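User: Here's a protein and a ligand (nicotinamide-adenine-dinucleotide). What would the complex look like?
Assistant: Let me lay out the input and then the predicted complex.
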Amino acid sequence: MAKKIVVIPGDGIGEEITNAAVLVLKKISDKFQLDLTFESHAAGGTAYDLYGTPLPEKTILAAKAADAVLFGAVGGAVWDNVDPALRPEKAILGLRKSLGLYANLRPIKVMDCLVEYSPLKKEIVSGIDIVIVRELIGGIYFGDKCESEMKDGFERAWDLENYSVPEVERIVKLAMEIAQKRNHKVTSVDKANVLATSRLWRRTAAKVAASYPDVKTNDMYVDNCAMQLAIHPTEFDVIVTGNLFGDILSDEAAVLGGSIGLMPSASIGECTSLYEPIHGSAPDIAGRGIANPIGTILSAAMLLRHSFSAEIAALAIEKAVEKALLDGYRTIDLYRDGFKKANTEEMTQAILDRI
Ligand code: NAD
């Protein structure tokens, strides 16, 4: 049966990188007879310019009706002065809420041929293979907040962190299931020595873990986890944590791979899931055809794996990316003397040729 992918290019380099990923998905669809179909929809600043809103209702409805969403990136200085409620970035937050995207998955791998691009020493990063599972629609980012109030003669602001047991159970279960397909190890990260929400998180994680005896589980404070990611990153398999800690730890872990342009992500939803590279719209290089498409192409591989259970097709993409890099192709963010300098189109072609 045909599977519909809604493509939301967004702004900046979004169009260039999603075009590249769609070419790869089309080739994979033919090769593995997946019968994928594509439908493009607007979001972000581009949608604001066209429709006066960063997330048109039509885009939300199309995303909900799709089998998966491939997202580029949104944002740019052009829209810096629009009403904050209509900023391009509201599109991604709105899609997370509308699609119930409760979990963000970020695989962090360092390919052998790219080890020297990591800011850490080769012997520390060699062999890293981590998945960070971040809770995405709860916690302090979505709690009540007050921008400004007067108390005891001083202006103050506050944000409320809150988690319920079902919210924690859902994300920890997902982390356990992911670990079962990997190295059977989950690290649950919190700040239980200080925060009440973290103590509830820790109690709930322990109860969920009891149902997964084949998964080795440990708790870790977030400050220690930040440190361990820099000194013993290969010790981790799956990390599960809340929205705020996950935001920070996943960006820290992402730089271990050497370039932000390489990193994919998946946001798992109650209905449709969404796949996007971790970087933004890179307005500084937009329109020049030089963006690294690999983060988006690897996001397409995650799409095949998680939304369509097409593991072999996903692996075919991942292997083709690795082969293109091994054969020396490098986009501007990774280019060094002695390698083959490739623009977006040339890197995409190098990957297509290796599928
Ligand atoms: P960015 O990730 O867009 O760019 C940071 C740096 O990395 C830039 O120098 C850029 O050229 C480079 N870069 C990023 N992706 C690249 C790629 N694929 N290939 C080569 N180089 C790449 O972050 P920023 O500059 O802080 O943000 C730009 C805009 O993107 C802002 O409006 C921000 O709000 C938005 N943003 C959107 C998302 C999203 O849509 N999910 C995420 C992050 C930032």
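Summary: Residues 13, 73-76, 89, 92, 260-261, 276, 279-285, 291-292, 295, 333 surround nicotinamide-adenine-dinucleotide (CB under 6 Å).
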